[in-house]
């Protein structure tokens, strides 16, 4: 049985005994997850629980808990008489927020942003259309207020405030769609918006046209204009895809 490919002992392993049990489990879980999602541990690689115990200087029970969590995310699978095998991207639970964060933190960042943005482009115009037909008046009014505050934050170049308001704006539209499955996607939208900001893929001052599109969506939803709401959201998604295209055209190959 070979050790983990290309990975030596962790610098923190000598002091891991001072970390509480839950913290040790999280350390193993997070480190292996990041390395698998980054391709440091390649698909089809195998390793044993003993190799992980030795690397992190933790107990077998801690290792097993961490590996069970990684297995639940589709990153690894037990392999009889071999140990644990790393699975390819096609087997991962790509909707898991932790998997998304690990991918955003690694070399597949742009590929992950592209996938999330394309998902948004497919879902959010439909959500805006349904929101215009179904949203209660009080929620529609809240959305108009959000659009106004979003506009102000964008014009002021207040990136943290703009990000928070943008996440709230798009989450509210997904909720207002009246479709509980759309509503659950707000976490994914938040991750792509956060990722673009965190990795400097957002302009400090959003274009006035983009700010106006948010106002147009909110107004269309408030007035029950489903087609305009959808069309305005399509415009936002088209603009986002165009802004990102020059970045992901230069992306590294997708891992897995």
Automatic annotation (TrEMBL):
Database matches in InterPro entries: GntR_C, TF_FadR/GntR_C, Tscrpt_reg_HTH_GntR, WH-like_DNA-bd_sf, WH_DNA-bd_sf
Which Gene3D superfamilies does the annotation name? GntR ligand-binding domain-like (1.20.120.530), Winged helix-like DNA-binding domain superfamily/Winged helix DNA-binding domain (1.10.10.10)
Pfam families according to UniProt = FCD (PF07729), GntR (PF00392)
Superkingdom assignment: Bacteria
Keyword line: DNA-binding, Transcription, Transcription regulation
Report the residue ranges that make up the HTH gntR-type domain in this protein: 22-89
Protein name, as recorded: Transcription factor
Organism lineage string:
Bacteria, Bacillati, Actinomycetota, Actinomycetes, Micrococcales
